[in-house]
Amino acid sequence: MPKKDPCKVFACNIQKCLKENNFQESACKQAIEDLRQCCVKWGTASYVCGGININNNPKKNNETQSESETTS
């Protein structure tokens, strides 16, 4: 019997959030971050983390992007 994927529930939460919010990614930032944090913890033990960049913190990227937009 296969093991339960420890991050599957977070991936499902993203899909549910996106569907409820007309696929607006910006409305689901917390659900996305929750999955990223699960992938940081479980890494290769979770099948759903295969395409997740755990080294990329979207909060920091958004701050950097906003700063560069205001200085341009």
Automatic annotation (TrEMBL):
Species this chain originates from: Cryptolaemus montrouzieri
Polar residues biased stretches: 63-72
One Pfam family of this chain: CMC4
Taxonomic lineage of the native organism: Eukaryota, Metazoa, Ecdysozoa, Arthropoda, Hexapoda
GO cellular component entries: mitochondrion
Record has Lipid metabolism as a keyword: no
Annotated protein name in UniProt: Cx9C motif-containing protein 4
Region listing for Disordered, in residue ranges: 53-72
Bridged cysteine pairs (disulfide): 7-38, 17-28, 39-49
Matching PROSITE patterns: CHCH (PS51808)
